[in-house]
UniProtKB/TrEMBL annotation:
Keywords: Oxidoreductase. InterPro entries: NAD(P)-bd_dom_sf, Sc_DH/Rdtase_CS, SDR_fam. The keyword Oxidoreductase applies. Coiled coil: none annotated. The keyword Transcription does not apply. Pfam families: adh_short_C2 (PF13561). It comes from Dermatophagoides pteronyssinus. It comes from the Eukaryota. This is Uncharacterized protein. The lineage of its organism: Eukaryota, Metazoa, Ecdysozoa, Arthropoda, Chelicerata.
């Protein structure tokens, strides 16, 4: 026997009553599987791009979100958007911090605990990329910058947040990249840093698992976000995206929603037996 969702019966009833094509009927669906009401979610780099999308999605589902960015205006703007999206008028915290400064990371965690008393979900989203060759005169600076921006800040923030996550049996989701597994000669410093963050996630998943804290990471391929501008890739990355669109098995570029859906799943109780996992979100790009 096939059990049809009640929303289908409601849609059929509306069609019967109004003679409206079923394609024009909007079904009454809910996101009850991803209810974060009462949960405190700290997301780095959440004033723009993928991080902003994640902040909005958690807010829509009732979470108390800590919004982080380097510019006051961007952080405040995102705060206002999240407040309007929250169905339960959940409290938010806007916190301006440079994630590469460990003192500011600790202060952000302290401010979160002072306001909410806990942290349930940590999303290590902040990061950045750059071009880099073994022949670059400034290679040392690039390597340090990439390690600070993609690895060290996530390590230290996790260090400061871990005791609080342990108290609530929380979880950590880190945004990595497919370039942590696939070498790329043009983005070498970024590849190295993302490979390091992958191993960090797997290592602490073993350590934190017995304490009830899950640790997972997501590896997207290139997407159309403000990452291009921030990385300095500009027109070059646009060309890469066009090429990917023609060659990826699913024949399209990834959207931030594709990554957001995975993050919501990993942060929810639906993934309660998943830790140390890497979810690749690349449309099959890593298969070719």
């Amino acid at each position: 026997m096939v059990l049809w969702p009640i929303s289908l019966f409601e849609a059929a009833r509306k069609v019967q009553q109004s003679n409206t094509p079923i394609s024009q009927i909007r079904m009454n669906t809910t996101d009850s599987d991803y209810d974060f009401t009462g949960k405190v979610v700290l997301i780095t780099g959440s004033s723009g791009g993928l991080g902003a999308h994640l902040a909005q999605e958690f807010c829509k589902r009732g979470a108390n979100v800590v919004i982080n960015g380097r510019r006051q205006s961007s952080v405040q703007s995102m705060l206002q958007q999240c407040q309007m999206l929250s169905p339960n008028q959940a409290e938010m915290l806007a916190y301006v911090a440079d994630v590469t400064v460990k003192q500011q990371l600790k202060a952000m965690v302290d401010a979160t605990i002072e306001k909410f008393g806990k942290i349930d979900v940590l999303v290590n989203n902040a990061g950045g990329g750059t071009f880099g060759s073994i022949f670059d005169e400034d290679l040392d600076d690039k390597m340090h910058r990439m390690m600070d921006l993609n690895l060290h800040q996530a390590v230290m923030l996790t260090h400061y947040a871990a005791p609080h996550l342990e108290k609530n049996k929380g979880n950590i989701v880190t945004i990595s990249s497919i370039l942590g597994q696939q070498p790329n000669q043009y983005f070498m410093p970024y590849c190295v840093a993302k490979a390091a963050i992958d191993m960090f996630c797997k290592s602490i998943a073993i350590e934190l698992g017995p304490k009830g804290v899950r640790v997972n990471y997501v590896s997207p391929t290139a997407m159309r976000t403000n990452f291009q501008q921030a990385s300095g890739a500009g027109e070059t990355l646009k060309g890469v995206l066009s090429h990917l669109e023609e060659t990826i098995p699913l024949r399209r570029i990834g959207r931030i929603e594709d990554v957001g859906n995975v993050v919501l799943f990993l942060a929810s109780d639906k993934s309660s037996f998943i830790t140390g996992a890497n979810i690749v979100v690349d449309g099959g790009n890593s298969l070719i």
